[in-house]
What we know:
This protein is of the alpha/beta class. The chain has 5 domains: about 5-35, no CATH class; about 40-175, CATH 2.40.50.140; about 190-245 and about 645-685, no CATH class; about 255-285 and about 300-425, P-loop containing nucleotide triphosphate hydrolases (Rossmann fold, 3-Layer(aba) Sandwich); about 455-610, Rossmann fold (3-Layer(aba) Sandwich). Helices cover about 40% and strands about 15% of the residues. Helix 14 links the parallel strand 14 and strand 15. Helix 7 crosses helix 8 (about 210-245) and helix 8 (about 210-245) packs across helix 22 (about 650-665). It is globular and about 85 Å long. The two termini are about 35 Å apart.
Amino acid sequence: MSFFHTKIENLRGVGSQRATLLQKELNIFTYGDLIQRYPFRYLDRTQFYSIVDLHEELPYVQVKGILRNREVVGEGPKQRMVAKVSDGSAELELVWFKGVKWLQSIIKNHQEYIVFGKPTIFNGKPQMAHPELEEVTEAKPGQSFLQPVYNTTEKLKNYHRIDSKAIARLVFDLLKTALPHVQESLSPALIQHYGLMSKAEAYQQIHFPQTPELLQAARFRLKFEELFYVQLKLLRQRDQRKITLAGQFFREVPTLIHFYKNVLPFDLTGAQKRVIHDIYKDFCTGQQMNRLLQGDVGSGKTIVAFISMLMAADNGAQSCLMAPTEILADQHYVGLKAYADLLGLKLGKLTGSTRTADRRVLHEQLRSGEMHMLVGTHALLEDVVQFRNLGLTIMDEQHRFGVAQRSKLWQKNPNVIPHVLVMTATPIPRTLAMTLYGDLDVSVIDELPAGRKPIVTVHRYDANRLKVFQFVRDQVTLGRQVYIVYPLIEESETMDYKDLTDGYESVARAFPEFQISIVHGRMKAEQKDFEMQRFVNRETQIMVATTVIEVGVNVPNASVMIIESAERFGLSQLHQLRGRVGRGAEQSYCILMTGYKLSKDSRTRLETMVRTNNGFEIADIDLKLRGPGDLMGTQQSGVLDLLIADLAKDGRILTESRAAAQQLINADPGLANPENLNIRRHIASLPATAVNWSRIS
Length: 697
Ligand code: ADP
Ligand code: MG
């Protein structure tokens, strides 16, 4: 057991009561946990705002001044502590609503403080609620240039005196004895090549930096190491799986050639051809394919899926394509069945609403091998669905499926694990994809079919609705169709339903001359299909819907997408919705409707949509706005529990560390070279994780 596994209660100044608190509140169990609890910011004792310059747009700022007029006002739950700080330029009011008693014992009048907090303006005067205070003392020689600030909890701070400063003291004491025990975890070659600080020095400098430059170097070193080990693990797993998991060979392609020559009504784009080639190469290796196909909405992923299915069929294997919604499964089925029929291949559909009698026939055809291809929803995961020889499984709009559901598909062939192709149109920023899907091979379709006109996107206020409706009327008169989408938020389904039905009624009133479809999540599948089908057949001109139409639906004649309460949608969702139009030859439009009152983030989202059609650019901005934890499907993955690196900001370090990991694996796959002893030893010291990576996706 290493020094860093020592229990935290053994640290001087901790004891059993404090240890329990540190465990419960901050998840700090060992010396290692404490050392790796890096400061979340630093107090720079040289940078201060003048109080007179404070305004509400400022983020967290630091001022320095003398505290006066400390008093407790109010009674009971309204009780609060107020004080004033003056720096000669103006006065700043401070207020605390919690921990009043404790504050009384520590805040002193006439003392000079460094005050840190978010300024607001109240009655024309600057104010700060719950600021942090730091007594100004003479800087001691040798003291760190920047003071570390640690996250703690209200409970620790207010009732147990374990504030940031107390943690800093613990870390300081620990570092004194810990440094000799720190083992370098990167190889001398890596350290030299990337000019990295040593690990021991990085620990010292990240907590108590002597200069901003040293802090920068420490940060870089620790982020690099963290991302390097994530990537090394993912890449090794990918290679491991390739060695151990066999996949069927799909080398023969006679039907595919016939399809290209005689059936396919358009030319594939260069990007589609490239991706198909990637897939074909995988099929010729004898190893199981695990490939992620990313492509912006409308880039033509479905045909790539179908061509892959043809390769399977040409080699005696069955394939299935799983879609997240019934509507989408239907649409794939209708589109692909036309091709399959022309090729003499049997393609079936299985969804929740397939009738029992049909189901029985289908099950039998799948077991006998008579059915070559299957399109469906998660209904095809059920255990009764068995294949004679499933060779390829494709998941469309992959982020909608849970990990457990996905792994079920693997078990559908007891002899050879099927190849897996995962398709997503939710553009995942590159940095995130490298981490979330780092163990998959990735192909990207970065080109739209020729002749597509970029969608014109505008933002309009609700007050201009009449004009917008007139535009709708003009477009429909020209023969186009229009989507009007209302938000759907899970927590208040009833309210959204009301929004939607109110919306439907007002649309119906505004356009008595047009036929209108309505589709929402509460409808039965058959009803939905019926309405959808009417729209596809052009029997209706306007489709009023919730986000159920977000995914994949393809109606080339629809050229206008109106999104109501657009501020309530996330960026990637807006982009998905917009992707429902712009699929035909006509100029398409996306109109984002909102009220006048908008938050800063909402404005950024709307402006981004108006400015660009590029899904990857949008994804990057989305990541910056929301942070990786909020992006779809990332919470469950566990790969984002990073201590210091930030996927939204550290893209460059991630790319470098991944390249370094790949290079290491190529040069020394078994990590047997004595040069790499540090790395081997570090991996051995890592806790084994419960996640079985090879089974994800
Ligand atoms: P997505 O990538 O969003 O799933 P789809 O596969 O639904 O996109 O394709 C969108 C539309 O583009 C479909 O109507 C499809 O037939 C058409 N399409 C796909 N590839 C091409 C191409 N190379 N040339 C012209 N049209 C294409
Ligand atoms: Mg699609």
